[in-house]
Amino acid sequence: MTQRRGSDFAGLSVAIVTPFKDGEVDYARLKEQIEFQVEAGTRCIVPVGTTGESPTLTHDEHERVISEVIQCVAGRAKVMAGTGSNSTAEALRLTQRAAKEGADATLQVAPYYNKPTQEGFFQHFKAVAQAVDIPVCVYNIPGRSGKEIEVGTIQRLAELPGITMVKEATGKLDQCSAIVGTTDLTVLSGDDSLTLPMMAVGAEGVVSVAGNLVPSDMIRLVNAAASGDLDVARQMHHQLFGLCNNMLGLATNPIPVKAAMRMVGRDTGELRLPMTPLDAEAEAKLQQTILAYGLASAAR
C-alpha cells in the first residue's frame, strides 16, 4: 500500500465547537471539551473551523482559541488549526501565527464568496504552503464556499511538498476516488455519514462533527474500516448514520450539534448571530434522535 503524505493524521479528527457564554468565548468549557476528546483517544483536534463558528470570531479570539487548544492538548493529540480565509493575506497571517504557537497542521478552506478561478485556488494554497513549515490540509466544501476545487487543481497542489491532505466534503465518492487514485495525498472525509464509503476507496479518516458527541464510536468505525473489519465497520456505520444524518440535517452546522451537546449534558452555551437556535419542532426531533441512539438526554 502506498505511504501517503499526511498519513500521520489518519483516524479521527474532531472539528470542535467554540463555547460561548454571555457573548464571550468560554475557555473553561473549551478545555473541558479538549479533555473529553483526549480521554476518548481522538487523534487530532481541529479548532475554529466552520463547526467552531470561525466566521463570527474576532481575529484576537481566533488566535487565542488556537493558542488555548494547543496549550491544553500539550502534545497528547495533534492540533490542526482552522486558519483559512477568502483573503490570502489573512490566511497567511493566521497560519503563520498558528504555526508559531505550535499547531501540527493547518486546515485551509477554499476561499469563499469571491469564487476564485482554479488558478486562483492553486495560487492561494501555494502561497500558504510556501509560507509555513507545517502540513496543509486543503478543505474542499463547495456547499459552504460556493465553488469546487476541481480534481485537476488538487493534482497540481499535490506536487507541492507542503500540501499533504485533503478534507473532502463535496459529497462525491468519485471525487475521493480520483484524488486517492492519482495523488499521494491523505484524504479525510468531511462528511460523517460518508466516512465508511470514502475509506472503502482509500480515504484514511474523517474530520468529524458527530465526534463532538460520540468520539469513541467514531474511533471504532474508523479503526474497523482501516483494519479491514468490514462487519464491525458496517455495524458502526449504520449505528452512526441515523445520528449523523438526522442531527446534521436539521439545520446548518453547528446549530444542531450545539443543541445536542446541551441535551447530553455537555453544554457549550449560545450561538453567535447569524446562527440561531433550533425551533421547538426541530428540538423535539433532535431529542428523539439522541434518545434513539442511546445517549442520555438532559433536554427538557
From TrEMBL:
Residues that hold pyruvate according to the record: T51, V207
The protein's annotated pathway: Amino-acid biosynthesis; L-lysine biosynthesis via DAP pathway; (S)-tetrahydrodipicolinate from L-aspartate: step 3/4
Marked site positions, Part of a proton relay during catalysis: T50, Y113
Annotated keywords: Amino-acid biosynthesis, Cytoplasm, Diaminopimelate biosynthesis, Lyase, Lysine biosynthesis, Schiff base
Catalytic residues identified in the record: Y139 (proton donor/acceptor), K167 (schiff-base intermediate with substrate)
GO terms of biological process kind: diaminopimelate biosynthetic process; lysine biosynthetic process via diaminopimelate
InterPro entries xref list: Aldolase_TIM, DapA, DapA-like
Record PANTHER family: 4-HYDROXY-2-OXOGLUTARATE ALDOLASE, MITOCHONDRIAL, DIHYDRODIPICOLINATE SYNTHASE
Protein name, UniProt field: 4-hydroxy-tetrahydrodipicolinate synthase
Originating gene: dapA_2
